[in-house]
Automatic annotation (TrEMBL):
<dbReference type="InterPro" id="IPR036134">
    <property type="entry name" value="Crypto/Photolyase_FAD-like_sf"/>
</dbReference>
<dbReference type="InterPro" id="IPR014729">
    <property type="entry name" value="Rossmann-like_a/b/a_fold"/>
</dbReference>
<dbReference type="Pfam" id="PF03441">
    <property type="entry name" value="FAD_binding_7"/>
</dbReference>
<dbReference type="InterPro" id="IPR018394">
    <property type="entry name" value="DNA_photolyase_1_CS_C"/>
</dbReference>
<keyword id="KW-0285">Flavoprotein</keyword>
<dbReference type="InterPro" id="IPR002081">
    <property type="entry name" value="Cryptochrome/DNA_photolyase_1"/>
</dbReference>
<comment type="similarity">
    <text>Belongs to the DNA photolyase family.</text>
</comment>
<dbReference type="Pfam" id="PF00875">
    <property type="entry name" value="DNA_photolyase"/>
</dbReference>
<dbReference type="InterPro" id="IPR036155">
    <property type="entry name" value="Crypto/Photolyase_N_sf"/>
</dbReference>
<keyword id="KW-0157">Chromophore</keyword>
<dbReference type="InterPro" id="IPR006050">
    <property type="entry name" value="DNA_photolyase_N"/>
</dbReference>
<keyword id="KW-0274">FAD</keyword>
<feature type="domain" description="Photolyase/cryptochrome alpha/beta">
    <location>
        <begin position="2"/>
        <end position="131"/>
    </location>
</feature>
<protein>
    <submittedName>
        <fullName>Deoxyribodipyrimidine photo-lyase</fullName>
    </submittedName>
</protein>
<dbReference type="InterPro" id="IPR005101">
    <property type="entry name" value="Cryptochr/Photolyase_FAD-bd"/>
</dbReference>
Amino acid sequence: MNVSVVLFTSDLRLHDHPALRAAQDGSAALVPLFVRDDAVAEAGFTAPNRMAFLADCLADLDGGLRARGGRLVVRSGDVVAQVCQVVAEADADEVHMAAGVSGYARRREERLRTALEGEGCRLHVHDTVITALAPGAVTPSTSDHFAVFTPYFRHWSQEPLRDPVAAPRAIRVPDGVGSEAIPSRTGLSGLSEGLARGGESEGRKRLTAWLRADIASYEDGHDDLSGDATSRLSPHLHFGTLSPVELVHRARAAGGPGAEAFVRQLAWRDFHHQVLAARPDAAVADYRTKRDRWRSERAAHEDIKAWKKGRTGYPIVDAAMRQLRHEGWMHNRARLLAASFLTKTLYVDWRIGARHFLDLLVDGDVANNQLNWQWMAGTGTDSRPGRVLNPVTQAKRYDPDGEYVRRWVPELAGLAGGAVHEPWKLQGLERAAYDYPDPVVELSEGLARFRAARDRD
Ligand SMILES: Cc1cc2nc3c(=O)[nH]c(=O)nc-3n(C[C@H](O)[C@H](O)[C@H](O)COP(=O)(O)OP(=O)(O)OC[C@H]3O[C@@H](n4cnc5c(N)ncnc54)[C@H](O)[C@@H]3O)c2cc1C
């Protein structure tokens, strides 16, 4: 019988894990391996919030494996060198892992395949672990990926999903394969105060509660900023503590308009992943509309600083940016508003905003973050790249009573109802009573600058 290694990456779970199942089938023993990859740290993708969530996930995965007679093996260093070393220690014949979509993930697979071939060991890469449908599973007739969501979603919806795979009952890890200590949150600094807890157990609890009680109101409530009525499953999807295939199946089984709307959002996730898989350079380069006339970072320095600190003078934008800092998470409508404000009203390069989000977001994800930023900046897949979200109109629509703003911008808590969205309308002493900045730019001025620059491009 064979010995297999399962290399966990963005798939830190035991339920519905086809790579884990394939590794177990036909193997006498397997090594569940996670490598703290030097390249990820060198690329600056080790934001403290995500490192803390990751530590929770690894501890929980180890706990789940131990309950089945196994354990997690953790190593640090170059991922290829570490996998080869574990293969040698375990005398393994096969390595199984989930297919990734980023340029880095693809290169990692190639390097691993070549290195393992030299060791007489086969690499098996499994689709539909990280996404519900594999990138490229549906394509238009003229391209290798969909650049517009609506037709993608039509095809995506018609495509049959594989059945979920049961979690393993027992796992035997071969003797003689050592592990570093499982990382923990202790000692990590710079964490957001309201950071969520990670781990498959936590994710499954949240999913069950979501399907039982909250999904029904998702269609009506998902844009309501103060209602906070979205699933908050994004970090679990990012770290793979929940399977997107299982989520789609369970949401469809729940049924109703809320579930349909939720499944549509999961399809957005697959959509961005298939764009990135086909165009890995979209993580850093404009996907469609080349815009090289952004204001220079130096010229926009004060505006960028105000945006990051939540001191732009636009309460809804500031509330969004403070939620991000406090929780390491932000409501989708708030992300849209914050991104539109930076790229269109302030006319600042989307990469600056995307980097800041990745520094703080617990769900910070190359496909979802970079491509949503590009969508809002008008350089990506939005079919209306000129769309600008007016922060005041949007605030009145999605936070009509001003509760979201009062929650995150406490210095304006004394302003009742929708008046909180336009503090600049206050006069004299009343205005002076609030320690809150004037708007960094008039909206009409920002709009004129954006349109002039766009028309020049
Ligand atoms: C500028 C910007 C940056 C973003 N950065 C990220 C990011 O780094 N990581 C991330 O996971 N999402 C990102 N999103 C997408 C979206 O905002 C979050 O997925 C969502 O807010 C997470 O909250 P939730 O789990 O409660 O979502 P729900 O509304 O409950 O949706 C369920 C799931 O569907 C997926 N989803 C929802 N909306 C989108 C979307 N627009 N694009 C892709 N997938 C979506 C997510 O996986 C989400 O968990 C970004 C959006 C914008 C506008």
